[in-house]
Write a structure and sequence with these properties.
Elements: E1 5-11, H1 18-34, E2 39-41, H2 53-59, H3 67-79, E3 82-92, E4 95-103, E5 109-114, E6 120-122, E7 128-130, E8 135-136, E9 142-145, E10 150-153, H4 162-170, E11 175-177, H5 184-202, E12 205-208, E13 212-214, E14 220-222, E15 226-228, E16 234-237, E17 243-249, H6 252-260, H7 263-266
Parallel strand pairs: 1-2, 2-3, 4-8, 10-11, 11-12
Antiparallel strand pairs: 1-17, 3-4, 4-5, 6-7, 9-10, 12-15, 13-14, 15-16
Helix pairs in contact: 1-3
């Protein structure tokens, strides 16, 4: 078991200009590292927040050309920390990949993950989102070994699908993540309970950085970046302004929680039988 370490979430208010977002991310990552964080996570679509599809496609680059990926890889090496880019909008043909990156302490790429579940919804306040019109969905879950622990990668809307997080926990992940760009409406209703539920049911830490506030493209995101321990205790939570939160991650808590409630070992395959009355049977 590794020694406790400090994890940080960088909460951003993404703009239309990738250069401005990169500047904000670098400043806050440096702040987190100076305070002792060895793992720093940024939110979903860290490089650009723009609902205008043509403008988005014109502003972004391929993975090989993306300036934020290059700059944060160099920063991870300089600072000797792990940087988890919650996701970047990456050009993928005539669409966009919503792709997370794990950058190692030597600046090397440890893993990439494309968001599996796309946010196609109609909300009560009239907001309509059709991510599938712009983004391509991923095809596989991804776990990655860090110096401290095995970590499971997910993004935003993925947090509503418990089977994904159970699969990651079954694959040996002690830390689960869902960096996000959650809408204010759904965040107020569901963010905290979803984050805590994924931690509790898997006996794992949950670490999720978020976008926050009213953005240049008109959307409003919830913020409240959060770090939750395996018993469901909130160790750190942001408000609705950009900034950095931090917490100590003691992986002994994972074994403790899973030992007390061994839900992972108790999982059973389930077949749903739709009961039908036998011919001639009548209820008493």
């Amino acid at each position: 078991m590794s020694a406790p370490f400090k994890a940080a979430c960088v909460q951003m208010r993404g703009k239309r200009d990738p250069a401005e977002n990169l500047e904000d991310a670098i400043r806050m990552i440096r702040e987190a590292a100076k305070a002792g964080a060895t793992y720093v996570q940024t939110p979903e679509i860290s490089n650009i927040v723009n609902r205008d599809r043509p403008a988005l496609l014109a502003a972004i680059r391929t993975e090989a050309e993306d300036p934020m990926l290059k700059a944060l890889s160099a920063l991870a090496k300089e600072l000797g920390i792990t940087i988890h880019i919650g996701s970047l909008a990456i050009k993928n043909g005539d669409k966009v990949a919503n792709r997370a990156f794990m950058i190692g302490q030597d600046g090397g790429l440890l893993a990439r993950y494309d968001k599996l579940h796309l946010f196609d919804v109609d909300l009560p306040n009239g907001e309509t989102w059709r991510e599938s019109n712009t983004f391509t969905g991923g095809v596989e879950a991804v776990a990655v070994d860090l110096p401290e622990a095995r970590l499971g990668m997910a993004i935003c809307y993925d947090v509503r699908f418990p089977y994904l997080f159970r699969a990651l926990a079954d694959a040996g992940c002690s830390i689960l993540t869902a960096p996000a760009c959650f809408t204010k409406q759904t965040g107020e209703a569901h963010w905290s309970v979803l984050q805590r539920a994924r931690a509790i049911e898997n006996g794992a830490f949950m670490i999720s950085a978020a976008q926050a506030g009213v953005h240049e493209d008109g959307r409003e995101t919830y913020g409240h970046s959060i770090i939750v321990d395996p018993w469901g205790k909130v160790l750190a939570e942001a408000g609705d302004e950009p900034g950095v939160i931090m917490a100590e991650i003691d992986l002994a808590a994972v074994g403790d929680a899973r030992g007390k409630i061994p839900a992972l070992r108790h999982t059973r395959p389930v077949h749903v039988n739709l009961a039908k009355p036998a011919s001639g049977d009548r209820a008493a």
